[in-house]
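check these tokens.
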Amino acid sequence: GRNGIDGLYIKQKDGVIKEVLVAESKWNKSHLNWSGKNKLIHQMSQEWVLKILYRLQKYKPLPEYNTIKKLIEYDQYRARLFKMLPIREDKIQIQIYAIKNKGMKNFDTFIESTLRPIVIREPRNSFEREMIESYNMCRVEALHKYFPMLGEENIKELLLDNYLQKKDVEKLVK
């Protein structure tokens, strides 16, 4: 659902959870936010992850959540931010950030790796096709949200962007 963890992944060996990965994804210039009543909890901090896990456990109680919670409480998990960025009109880039200092309210992030650019019109494999589909869904969602506020010049710019967005813009213009 909204305002939660984008991905919670586990590795098991003989039915026992051995590794936990908490993942968050962002688009373009989006960044990790602050949450809670007074906006004191930083998204992806250990405190935030435990809070979200508590909500998940309440919503759908699963025995695995107890093990996951313990691993997170003992800082025995990995946290990653996946960021998708547009590059010019024909490519997208995915950067992966490892989140460190998970127990602190302010923590550093650093780029762990940057995947090779994905050419929108020429995906090389199923992973790239899926990423382009996600990219397109983000663009269409943003387009529908902001289109009513755009002037004629902005619409002309959008029509020149890339073929994926052009067809979506043309649907809205009609």
Q: What stands out?
A: The beta strands are 7-13, 16-27, 34-35, 41-42, 78-87, 91-99, 109-114, 118-119. The chain has a mean pLDDT of 82.
